[in-house]
Amino acid sequence: MYQFFVAPEQINGKNIRITGDDVNHIKNVLRMKNGDEIAVRNGVDEKEYRCEISFVGEEEIGCTLRFIKEEGLELPSRVYLFQGLPKADKMELIIQKAVELGIYEIIPVAMRRSVVKLDEKKAKAKLARWQGISEAAAKQSKRAVIPAVKEVMTFKEAVSYAARMDVKLIPYELAEGMERTKELINGLKPGQSIAVFIGPEGGIDEEEIGLALANGIQPITMGRRILRTETAGFTILAWIMYHLEGE
Predict the structure, then answer these.
(1) pLDDT, averaged across the chain
(2) Helices H, strands E: what count in the chain?
(3) Which of 42, 46, 137, 230 could serve as 8's disulfide partner, Cβ 3.0–4.6 Å?
(4) What is d(CA 16, CA 9) in angstroms, rounded to the nearest whole number?
C-alpha cells in the first residue's frame, strides 16, 4: 500500500488533504482514483491514517478516513547520527540508508578533515535536497516519522548539541577492544537518546577526538578493518537496531 506524509493540520476529523508534489505523483504517476486506499501519516507520531481517495483535483487530493492504526514501527530509542561531511554524493546514500535503519535525526558536521566545504547558499540547497531524500526514504521504508536533517554544524557545535543525550559513541582507532564496544552497545536501553559520531573520509582529527572524550563521548572500535565513512555509520546503526529491537 502506498504511504504519504501530510502536515498535522491537513488531518481534520475524517477529512484528509494531500497537497504538493504528491498530488502529481498520485494522479499522473500512480494513476489512482476515487475509492483507492492509501496510508497517510503526519510525520510526528506513529499513527497510520488508513483512508480512501474521495476527490482528485489539480492541486489537492481529498481523502476520507476509514480507521487509524497505531503501531510501534519506530525504534524504542531516538538515535542521532552526527555525520562528518563526506565527498561527492555520499551524504545522499548515508541519509537514505540511515532512515531505513531507523535514525531519528541526522546532523551533518563540518570537520577539520572534511574535503567538502559548503557556503551558505550551497548549504541551503543541499539541506533541502537531503530533507527530500529523508522523506522519500521514510515513505519507502514505511517509517512513522520523517527524520529531520539539521543544518550543518561545526564539530564543537555538534558536541554541544549532543550534550543533552544519554549515550554518545564515536569510533576511534585507539579505542579498547571489541568487548568494550559490545558492553556499550548491550547497555543501551529503550527510551534513551543515543548520539553516534562518524568522521569523514580523512577520519577524525586528534583535537576533535580530545574534545569528544572530554565531553563524555565514548570511544568504540569498528573491528580490525578500516571502514569507509558510509560503511561505519551503517554498521553502528545496524548494531543498535539489532540490539534495541531485540529488547
Answers:
(1) 91
(2) 7, 13
(3) 42
(4) 9
CA–CA gap between residue 61 and residue 43 (Å, rounded): 18
Distance CA 166, CA 163 (A): 8
d(CA 39, CA 121): 36
- pLDDT tens by residue, 16-57: 999 999 999 999 999 999 999 999 998 888 888 999 999 999
43 touches 26 (CB < 8 A)? no
Instruction: Give SS3 for 117.
Output: coil
If you average pLDDT over residues 118-141, what whole number do you get?
89
What would the grid cell of residue 42 be?
503526519
Task: Please name each of the domains of the chain with its CATH number.
Answer: 3-70 (2.40.240.20), 78-244 (3.40.1280.10)
| Degrees to nearest 5, angle at CA 79 with 19 and 211 | 125
Helix pair angle (229-244, 178-186), 10° resolution: 50
The runs of H, that is alpha helices, within the chain are 21-24, 90-100, 120-140, 155-162, 178-186, 206-214, 229-244
pLDDT surpasses 70 at 247 = no
pLDDT digits (tens, 9 = 90+) for 88-103: 889 999 999 999 999 9
CB atoms within 10 A of CB 213: 13
Q: Which residue in 110, 113, 88 sits closest to 230, CA to CA?
A: 88
Is the pTM here over 0.90, yes or no?
no
Quote the CA–CA distance of 208 and 112 in Å, as a whole number.
8
- Nearest Cα neighbor of 199 from 118, 117, 112 is 112
51-90 pLDDT tens trace: 999 999 999 999 999 999 877 778 999 999 999 999 888 9
